[in-house]
Request: fold
Amino acid sequence: MPNDFEIKGMSEHDIPEVLMLERESFGKMAWSSRDFESAVNSSYDYPFVIHEDSHVTGYSVLRVLAPEAEVEDICVSSDMRKQGIGECLLNHMISIARENGAENIYLEVRSKNEAAIGLYRKTGFQDSYVRKAYYRDPVDDAVIMVLKL
Ligand SMILES: CC(C)(COP(=O)(O)OP(=O)(O)OC[C@H]1O[C@@H](n2cnc3c(N)ncnc32)[C@H](O)[C@@H]1OP(=O)(O)O)[C@@H](O)C(=O)NCCC(=O)NCCS
Reply:
């Protein structure tokens, strides 16, 4: 069940493990240590982690600038996928966005990222528009998706 995972606010101690997962999943597009430090210390970013046996298994970053919110990052360790962790993080971000006065949540995703698009559609996000050839390494379109709260 997705909601069985305990979600905590990301701390500076989580960043080294978060960075490893981030680099594994996003390669050249990965956030830097400074990006995560800035999210941890920001008043409008909400960075979250899920741990299993004291290790980070998933994390996400939500930005809320009401009335808009944006899913900035979401990632689950490759050996822990398809167990509901991503859905749990996303549902938590939706609750936090709503609590903080957001009316819409936006995100952008590679058009070929079937796992992420499947997760977003399951959670109620809808396609808004496409930015052609927005991504590099490899080139791909960005699909902008929105959830109206
Ligand atoms: C996208 C990602 C976060 C999903 O995390 P996850 O924990 O594996 O997802 P969940 O187990 O919570 O799956 C929830 C739903 O997402 C969809 N989904 C998940 N993986 C999928 C896949 N490989 N193919 C198609 N749909 C998938 C399904 O609808 C699934 O519901 P179901 O289990 O009832 O079928 C994970 O694949 C990941 O970290 N990918 C690399 C990083 C990334 O691409 N992040 C998104 C950037 S925009």
Remarks:
- The mean pLDDT is 96.
- The pocket of coenzyme A is lined by residues 25, 74-76, 81-87, 109, 113-116, 118-119, 122 (CB under 6 Å).
- The CA atoms of residues 14 and 91 lie 21 Å apart.
